[in-house]
Design a protein that fits this description.
- By secondary structure, the protein is of the alpha/beta class.
- The chain has two domains: 176 residues, Rossmann fold (3-Layer(aba) Sandwich), CATH 3.40.50; 100 residues, N-(1-d-carboxylethyl)-l-norvaline Dehydrogenase, domain 2, CATH 1.10.1040.
- The chain has eleven helices and ten strands.
- The strands form two sheets. The chain has an eight-stranded mixed beta sheet. It has a two-stranded antiparallel ribbon with strand order 9-10.
- The longest helix has 20 residues.
- The protein is globular, with a radius of gyration of 19 Å.
- The chain binds acetoacetyl-coenzyme A (CAA).
- Acetoacetyl-coenzyme A binds next to helix 9.
């Protein structure tokens, strides 16, 4: 494959750029400005340095991966990319504006993929240059660690598009699961009700933050408790996905927990704002309830 374009140099976009470069793809990385794209690349350099320190990567492999990542001014530079992956903010109007811009340069055979975690692929495809060459490719955080990619086909996505993106995903060393374009796809459909239920349990006084998390972590053998994971994903993102599940199905089982709504209204989004179910201002996270 020729170059891969990655739109969005935040946590997800940088992770996608990193694993693509490590798999040998040339990557064009964009964000709202070249500076933001450069900052994304600087973060990738740090992540690769850590792998070198841990002797999981040679310094030659780090240098080779970094050399493959080119921060660019805008998506206008992505005309020669065979695959462009949008990993911008999870807001539909932002994604639609990006698709309109990429539509002016995307090659005739190139594929546009979105890393959306909750917006319907069939609807997003309507704003893409060609719905047959549009697909959902859902990575998990932290991208370099998590072994899964969900591939979501919209109604109009072609078989060739699915096959090409599946081959790319596998070349990154990830396992691929295919989902139809249903709310939350597979993983968030199952995960979000659990995280939301942990918020209900906390709000109803069932147990403390520590005990809910420790109970689920050790009792279910999960790597993180649900409240820690919600903070890690971002409470704003969790609420948004719960709302998508709730409004698109109309099923009350997906209604967001009042405490989750309150925390988001307070601007307590979890790790990224240093306050969620834990306080992250000190050396170790401290439960807040
Ligand atoms: N980037 C790269 N590597 C990372 C990392 C990051 N942000 N965070 C941790 N790692 C690596 C560490 O370097 C370490 O690597 P080695 O084993 O090679 O040394 C390994 O992951 C384990 O890390 P730690 O020992 O520091 O900590 P841990 O054992 O607690 O693992 C974790 C951290 C991998 C994040 C683990 O807690 C975990 O898997 N948590 C669950 C994550 C999860 O569920 N993600 C999905 C969220 S849902 C989503 O993303 C989709 C959506 O749409 C919302």
């Amino acid at each position: 494959m020729q170059a891969v374009g990655v739109i969005g140099a935040g946590q997800m976009g940088a992770g996608i750029a990193q694993v693509s470069a490590q798999a040998g793809y040339r990557v064009l990385l964009s964000d709202v400005s070249r500076e933001r794209a450069e900052a994304g690349k600087a973060g990738i350099a740090k992540a690769l340095d850590r792998l070198v320190t841990k002797e999981k990567l040679t310094s030659e492999a780090r240098d080779a991966a970094l050399a493959l990542i080119e921060p660019v001014e805008s998506v206008a530079a992505m005309g020669a990319c065979a695959l462009v992956i949008e990993a911008a903010t999870e807001r539909e109007e932002i994604k639609r504006a990006i698709f309109a811009e990429i539509g002016t340069v995307l090659g005739a055979d190139a594929i546009l993929a979105s890393n959306t975690s909750s917006i319907p692929i069939t609807r997003l495809a309507q704003a893409s240059p060609d719905p047959a060459r549009f697909v959902g490719v859902h990575f998990f955080n932290p991208v370099p660690v998590m072994g899964l990619i969900e591939l979501i086909r919209g109604l109009a996505t072609s078989d060739a598009t699915v096959a090409t993106v599946e081959a790319y995903a596998q070349s990154l060393g990830k396992q691929v699961v295919r989902a139809n374009d249903a709310p939350g796809f597979i993983v968030n459909r199952v995960l979000m009700p659990m995280l939301n239920e942990a918020c209900f349990a906390l709000g109803e006084g069932v147990a403390s933050v520590r005990d809910i998390d420790l109970g689920c972590q050790l009792g279910l053998n999960h790597p993180m408790g649900p409240l820690t994971l919600a903070d890690f994903i971002g409470l704003d993102t969790c609420l948004e996905i719960c709302r998508v599940l709730f409004t698109s199905t109309g099923d009350p089982k997906f209604r967001p927990a009042p405490l989750l709504v309150k925390y988001v209204e307070a601007g307590w989004f979890g790790r990224k704002t240093k306050r969620g179910f834990y306080d992250y201002t000190g050396p170790e996270p401290v439960p807040t309830r």
